[in-house]
Design brief:
The protein is mostly helical and 318 residues long. The chain is built from 14 helices and 4 strands. It is globular.
Length: 318
């Protein structure tokens, strides 16, 4: 239970934020605006758009201390992609594998910042995670929910068993619907096969937080004295950032899902501030004199052993 605690907390927090964001944007009244409006204000991109330096500095500080916990618990699109990835793993029954980072993250970040500075809104809408999910809720889920509500109201009127108010269903433009559907498919299909590909390749928020979390104080660390290379941690790493050949975790891509902690049977992977060093160093830097002095006795020792063996063989024959 102790090793699963972080994962359980992450699932509870991410699920609660995901539901809150969905209710905030799907509602036809302001019933959720007052109690849940703060959810939108703690998102990185909305905070950046209104120049809320407090929120930006807060998440940068959190990323420096604990890594990309924002991506695993507060980002609603990240939670959506986790659900898609989980279903993909269950259907495909194929584990994840380590992959080298793509060198496209900085490019997409530069494009996003340039579009924001130039007043071009279409690119951030289709590339920023909070915009992607909120637009999907408004253009797809909200009209569907309105139609369901009116259907329930009509059924109540016909049967006379309940009273439900009709609402004016919000209808999105055809262009908006196409953009939302295409964007969600574009981020969900890679998640089905590879996990958090979008988050570690395209997402500008993940890129910024990844730059900081590379130097985070608390990070996933592998104890090489205990690790047996069973690769269970690599199998469940949806960020594909655990390199077991070198026993290192790419902190810039790790989204702190803590799946690796819960599957390790050797108690060899930790979330901590310290770094494990080998208890028996495999390689040491020696001076030239030490290296020569260490090699000479070993050669002489071999010669003496050979002579002793020959002597014992001659005595046995005679």
């Amino acid at each position: 239970m102790g090793r699963n605690r972080l994962k359980i907390i992450r699932i509870i927090v991410s699920s609660a934020v995901f539901v809150a964001v969905t209710l905030l944007w799907i509602a036809y009244s302001d019933i959720f605006l007052r109690p849940l409006g703060w959810i939108s204000r703690i998102q990185v991109f909305p905070a950046a758009m209104v120049l809320s330096m407090a929120s930006l500095l807060f998440w940068l500080a959190v990323s420096f201390l604990f890594g990309r916990v924002y991506c695993s618990s507060v980002c609603p699109l990240g939670t959506w992609l986790d659900g898609v990835a989980h279903l993909g793993m269950a259907v495909r029954r194929k584990p994840y594998r380590y992959s080298r980072p793509f060198d496209l993250r900085s490019f997409f970040l530069l494009v996003t910042l340039s579009c924001i500075a130039g007043g071009i809104a279409i690119v951030p809408v289709v590339i920023e995670p909070y915009c992607i999910y909120s637009k999907f809720v408004v253009t797809i889920l909200k009209p569907v929910w309105g139609a369901i509500n009116n259907l329930i109201a009509y059924t109540g009127v016909v049967t006379g068993r309940w009273d439900v108010y009709y609402i004016a269903v919000v209808r999105a433009s055809v262009f908006g619907i196409i953009i939302s559907v295409v964007t969600m498919l574009a981020v969900s299909i890679p998640a089905w096969f590879f996990g958090r590909t979008f988050c570690n390749t395209v997402c500008p928020v993940g890129t910024v937080l990844g730059y900081v979390s590379r130097y985070a104080l608390c990070r996933i660390d592998i104890d090489t004295d205990r690790c047996t290379n069973c690769r269970r941690c690599e199998d469940v790493c949806k960020a594909s950032c655990i390199d077991l050949n070198d026993h290192v975790v790419d902190g810039s891509r790790c989204v702190n899902c803590f799946n690796c902690l819960s599957v390790c049977k050797d108690d060899a992977i930790f979330y901590r501030t310290s770094r494990k060093r080998l208890s028996w160093p495999l390689m040491q830097r020696l001076s030239r004199a030490d290296a020569g002095g260490a090699a000479a006795p070993s050669v002489g020792g071999v010669d003496n052993q050979v002579k002793t063996i020959k002597k014992e063989d001659n005595e046995a024959i005679s």
